């Protein structure tokens, strides 16, 4: 079952609990939404509800859409990682990784990818064969794909692809934020601190929770909204201030 469907199910369960708690019947809900009782009943008991109606239901119940999605986050028992060989191949060939992202994470078919990017049959075949050689898929006649890996899938901490992505993101973020022409959403906060290790780790955990919360909403609620890059970093600094204080005797 798709991850989005599972999230919608959990959101609907939470909404139905809140409707029951507030004593809002399906008849009352139908009147407020200007729908038939049959439509409301089907909407609350099927997975194909639209996002617009899901958010309207949340609003009627007095629930915050962002909090609702966050509470519906799916917890996975295991996380799977690319092998060193796969990571190296993607680092050396970013186009191959972009193809795999479209195929696996975005769930596009080879035909859809070819149409979107103007790929020939030969290019499509070469991409798929390379992914098969990396033991990520098995390829059947007619470019039918079966995945050998499964979600959640990501890179390990020492990944070359991650290091390249982080370096590019930091460079782009620095260039954007230090530019004289700032966009309305551009934001930067630099705060030197003195923290013991325990407090620093607690701060990191809290920042991760906030970022994860909004990242979840980004995928489900705001997919069509303008994109933005969020970069959060923390690192140890030298004990001496920079620039240091120097003698002026010989000046």
From TrEMBL:
Start and end residues of each HTH cro/C1-type domain: 15-68
Pfam families found in the cross-reference section: HTH_3 (PF01381)
Alphabetical list of InterPro entries matching this protein: Cro/C1-type_HTH, Lambda_DNA-bd_dom_sf
Record GO terms (molecular function): DNA binding
Highest taxon of the lineage: Bacteria
Protein name: HTH cro/C1-type domain-containing protein
Taxonomic lineage: Bacteria, Pseudomonadati, Pseudomonadota, Gammaproteobacteria, Alteromonadales
């Amino acid at each position: 079952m798709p991850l989005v469907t599972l999230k919608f199910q959990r959101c609907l369960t939470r909404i139905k609990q809140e409707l029951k708690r507030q004593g809002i019947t399906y008849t009352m809900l139908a009147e407020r939404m200007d729908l038939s009782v049959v439509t409301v009943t089907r909407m609350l008991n099927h997975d194909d509800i639209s996002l617009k109606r899901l958010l309207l239901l949340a609003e009627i119940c007095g629930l915050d859409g962002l909090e609702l999605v966050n509470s519906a986050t799916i917890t996975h028992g295991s996380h799977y990682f690319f092998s060193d060989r796969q990571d190296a191949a993607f680092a050396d060939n970013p186009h191959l990784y972009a193809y795999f992202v479209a195929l696996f994470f975005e769930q596009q078919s080879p035909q859809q990818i070819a149409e979107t990017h103007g790929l020939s049959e030969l290019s499509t075949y070469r991409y798929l064969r390379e992914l098969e050689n990396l033991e990520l898929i098995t390829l059947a006649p007619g470019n039918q794909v079966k995945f050998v890996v499964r979600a959640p899938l990501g890179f390990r901490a020492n990944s070359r692809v991650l290091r390249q992505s982080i370096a590019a993101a930091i460079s782009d973020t620095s260039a954007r934020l230090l530019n004289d022409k700032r966009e309305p959403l551009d934001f930067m906060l630099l705060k030197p601190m003195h923290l013991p290790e325990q407090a620093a780790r607690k701060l990191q955990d809290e920042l991760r929770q906030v970022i994860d919360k909004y990242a979840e909403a980004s995928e489900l609620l705001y997919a069509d909204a303008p994109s933005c890059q969020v970069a959060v970093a923390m690192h140890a600094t030298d004990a001496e201030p920079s620039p240091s204080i120097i003698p002026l005797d010989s000046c």
